[in-house]
Amino acid sequence: VPTWTIHQEATFQCVVHTSAKEGILLYSSAREGGFVALEIQEGLPVAVVGKGGVKTELRSQTFIDDKKWHS
């Protein structure tokens, strides 16, 4: 799997069509213990970034588990 190097900022875009209320859409970990994840929690998309023992979450208020396309 190719590595994804992020220095300070990055943009990730995807299109999702699902009825799932829970799941992992993307997960990438670093050798130093950091990670980035895009999850579905209770039907809502959640971006999670972990670095240096600190975890930051960004939560949307738009449900995506409605079997419609979302970008």
What do these coordinates show?
The protein has one domain. The protein contains no helices and six strands. It has strands at residues 16-17, 22-29, 35-41, 44-51, 54-59, 69-70. The chain has a four-stranded antiparallel beta sheet with strand order 2-3-4-5, with no helix packed on it. A hairpin with a 2-residue loop joins strand 3 (35-41) and strand 4. The chain is elongated. This is Laminin G domain-containing protein. Residues 1-71 form the Laminin G domain.
State mean pLDDT (0 to 100 scale).
Answer: 88
Q: Helical percent range?
A: under 10%
| Intertermini distance | 25 Å
What are the segments in which pLDDT stays under 50 over at least 5 consecutive residues? Answer: none
The total number of structural domains is 1
Domain Laminin G: 1-71
InterPro entries: ConA-like_dom_sf (IPR013320), Laminin_G (IPR001791)
Protein name: Laminin G domain-containing protein
Pfam family, one: Laminin_G_2
